[in-house]
Amino acid sequence: MSPESEADLPADATADTLPGTLPEELYAELVAFRRDLHMHPELGNQEFRTTAAIKERLEKAGLAPRVLPTGTGLVCDIGGDPGGGGPAVLALRADIDALPIPDTKSEVPYRSTVPDRAHACGHDVHTTVALGAGLVLADLHRQGLLPRPVRLIFQPAEEVLPGGAAEVIKSGALEGVGRIVAVHCDPRVDAGRIGLRQGPITSACDRLEVSLDGPGGHTARPHLTTDLVTAVARVVTDVPALVGRRVDTRAGLAVTWGRIESGHAPNVVPQHAELAGTVRCLDINAWRQAPDIVVAAIDEVANLHKAKSEINYVRGVPPVVNEPVVTELLRDAMIARRGAADVEDTEQSLGGEDFSWYLEHVPGAMARLGVRTPGERTVRDLHQGDFDADESAIRVGVELFTAAALLHPTR
């Protein structure tokens, strides 16, 4: 079978008949690669070391990765002629940046060596999975066993709103792509399993920054001031309630505050207050209305307390909406590798993910990759300093991606 062949593999392919399993030697290398990334986390748009490491390994495999115009992140094609009108490309996307939080794990030798930086969302795992899949698929291509072209996308700055995906798309990385898939670590799912859902699987996420100002004064005479602390407290408590009553409650539009600052002395009414938070939404149509709804609610509460408001509403990302056909491609791939028992249904989360921007252009789907050690009782969550992953999930992710590439239809 040539790399450009449009012949499909059998629909009833299984782990015994489907090529592309992960060799033990390569698995060990990938674990070491992931640990190296974990020890050297880099923030969004600063992932120079990470980019260089991925590029070096892909070039060693005889591939020709291209660093993105931003200087971090890269794309790499395997097989076919993506611009030549041949079979549609399947893109495998991974995000490569870390978070600005300390790594609090003390029990592992590969904890972060960079102060206040950690791979606390599993992007090191995502990157390693895409790299491993690329190496396996490159070997299959050399053997003439890769029926359709594949593109690896290693994306920077996923954690930086509105996300690095926009720059990747702008660079032309989706040209020739027919479908795109991704995984995201899930510490609530056992390693060896994946979670899937058709339709929305994440929420929209925007950032909100508010400044309130007014004439201050003495706390003995608050009636002669704009009582700014009270005003900001009412914004904090009243705005989420107002917003929740102005859309269908099933839309899940929610304002949550993460920072509030005001004042310096107990007997002085301050002149300035700041607060910041996020706006999350389960429904894409309600998300499109969210800026007007949220800004109006803040203005109403601020005006009631005679405070002048300045609002910076930063558009983030829409929900990731898994396209049914691509979702079923991932399901078929996992069943072919592991069996139906290792696929579970998953719920829509309130987390945001800029993978959604790719889905504005091409159909795609994201799977939740289980990273919890089976039987583990410790509850770990994403974006916490003690987050870690059962590294057997790397094998699962690689074999999921490779099976999806082999089962991917030509059009």
The quaternary structure here is single chain
The largest sheet, given as strand count, sense and whether it forms a barrel, is:
8 strands, mixed
Poorly predicted runs: 1-7
Output the number of helix runs: 9
Helix content: 25-40%
Please give a handful of descriptors for the protein shown.
single chain; alpha/beta; Alpha-Beta Plaits; 2 domains; four-stranded antiparallel beta sheet; 31% helix
Written overview of the protein:
- It contains nine helices and 16 strands.
- With 411 residues, the protein is α/β, with parallel strands linked by helices.
- The chain has two domains: 266 residues, Zn peptidases (Aminopeptidase, 3-Layer(aba) Sandwich), CATH 3.40.630.10; 114 residues, Alpha-Beta Plaits, CATH 3.30.70.360.
- The strands form four sheets. The chain has an eight-stranded mixed sheet. It has a four-stranded antiparallel sheet with strand order 10-12-8-13, covered by helices on one side. The chain has a two-stranded antiparallel ribbon with strand order 7-14.
- Strand 1 and strand 2 form a beta hairpin.
- Helix 5 runs antiparallel to helix 6 and helix 7 packs across helix 9.
- It starts with 23 loop residues before the first helix and ends with a helix.
- The N terminus is likely disordered.
Summarize the structure.
The chain is α/β, with parallel strands linked by helices and 411 residues long.
Annotate the secondary structure layout.
Layout: H1 24-39, H2 48-60, E1 66-67, E2 74-78, E3 89-95, H3 123-142, E4 150-155, H4 165-170, E5 177-190, E6 194-196, E7 199-200, E8 204-213, E9 217-218, H5 228-244, E10 254-262, E11 268-269, E12 272-281, H6 284-304, E13 308-317, E14 321-322, H7 324-337, E15 343-345, H8 355-359, E16 364-372, H9 392-407
Parallel strand pairs: 3-4, 3-5, 5-16, 6-15
Antiparallel strand pairs: 1-2, 2-4, 6-16, 7-14, 8-12, 8-13, 9-11, 10-12
